Amino acid sequence: MTRKGVWNLQQVRDKYLQSLWVNDLQLWATGSNAYGNLGQNDRTPHSSPVQIPGTSWSDTNGKTTFYNEGGFGNIKTDGTLWMFGQNTKGQIGQNDTNKRSSPVQVGSDTTWAEVNCGNACTFATKTDGTAWVWGNNYYGKLGQNNMTYYSSPVQIPGTNWSHIYPTRYSGRGIKTDGTLWAWGHNNDGQLGQNNRTKYSSPTQIPGTTWVDLSGDENTIATKTDGTLWTWGKNDHGELGLNDQADRSSPVQIPGTSWTSEGAVMTINNSRGAAIKTDGTLWMWGRNDDGDLGQNGPVYAHASSPIQIPGTTWSKISMCNGNYFAIKTDATMWAWGVNSQGDLGQNNRSKYSSPTQVLGSWSSVTANIYGIHGTKTSLTPSQL
Questions:
Q1: Residue 106 half-sphere exposure, CB side, CA atoms within 13 Å?
Q2: Do residues 94 and 152 make contact, with C-beta atoms less than 8 angstroms apart?
Q3: What pLDDT score does 19 carry?
Q4: Domain limits at 126?
Q5: What whole-number distance in Å separates Cα of residue 294 and Cα of residue 174?
Q6: What is the pTM of this model?
């Protein structure tokens, strides 16, 4: 009942058609909660999804990396940035190192566009094309031409950044002109410079048609022509090139119909995954716990892409031996090790093939302590 009385079904339908209802994205989380990273104002673990307080959240972008040390961020529809969880290196941007178990706002800006969390650090962009970083600065991965830690946002030189992404010891970014830049540690050739030299400020990787990327001690990236490229560490075939040789410059994975942008490819912890334009999902690399979603056998690693059953996949995120994918019908599916109840199945059993997570999901981001995802609910905008 509303203050205006009770609506019948026809009135509800009319109000929806009149756009008096709005989609309100809810933020949910599951898994370990050692640092308050589930946003529940406590440290109780959950093996099935629990809602994080607040409204008007935006879609998570699926790029939070494996070594994120329990910090998590999300941007609301009003352009404000909120973070919570572990804060040992100032990675939640509060100008201190105190943990937070419920969301706190980063500054007062209302122009944040994208946020990605890495190894005790955070990378984010604003609507004006500027890029901002904070947290630990191992090997100069914050792109400041130094190795100083920062507990509040500092700007990376330059403008026109469209995506900026942290990895364990380095950083990557793509600009609106299609150029790709990398900096930080380079022991496995992950900076794509055809060498293993460290860089503490952004250095360009050849090419001008790059669209999106992901990475860890390696990199996976897409171009406007639908091609998919990888480079860096390859000890378990995680570059998808049918061998286990490291690469220090980009090499193409066969095919030209890879989906180019929007949480559709990822690589970390010796595994890779990507979605094609026909809705098929492909994985490669380690298979210690049924990681490749083939319903066994485990330890049968793959150095070339193999298909996960199904043809309507739309988003993929993975971390720490756990895998989460969303289909076009908004169902979410999970598989992997599940040691902390990360898969949202209300247990800690391993799964070697995709198993559905209850709910209707619009996005998912995996991290070392579980997952964060958004659901859609219709709420009346005028009561």
A1: 33
A2: yes
A3: 40
A4: 22-380
A5: 33
A6: 0.89
